[in-house]
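Supplementary notes for students who missed Thursday's class. We covered one full example, reproduced here. Read the sequence, then the structure, then the short commentary at the end.
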Amino acid sequence: MGLKRSGVFVETRKLRYHNEEMPDGTIKKVPQEKGIDIRISLDLVRCTRKKEFDVAIIFSQDQDLSEAVIEVKEIAKEQGRSIRIVSAFPKSAIASSSRGIDRTDWFPFDKAFYDACIDPRDYRPAKFQSKTA
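Structure (token representation):
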């Protein structure tokens, strides 16, 4: 875990798999993440209580996170400080939604912006890195 060695807090979740029938009739195991929105909400509230940030950027459009946003703003008000929360999400002609999380500032970004933000470093241990990288 190169990110952990770099001092980044990393929270992992195991993927759960369910069977899904494909258009050709075959069955495929499909991964599904569970509990990520809860983890983000808890971290957001905890970090607010500890006064660890003034600006949070959440790369999501999940409206379930809006309740945590309300809580964060109430905590910030009690603490007498200002917190800004940004909901960053991809925009495109085929995107399913063009809105961010309620009560946040919205930051829609395009593919070019996303590509420019990708960290080229491969953080996996050497034994797991691609031979072509």
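Commentary. Residues 53-119 form one domain. The CA atoms of residues 12 and 36 lie 9 Å apart. If anything here is unclear, bring it to office hours.
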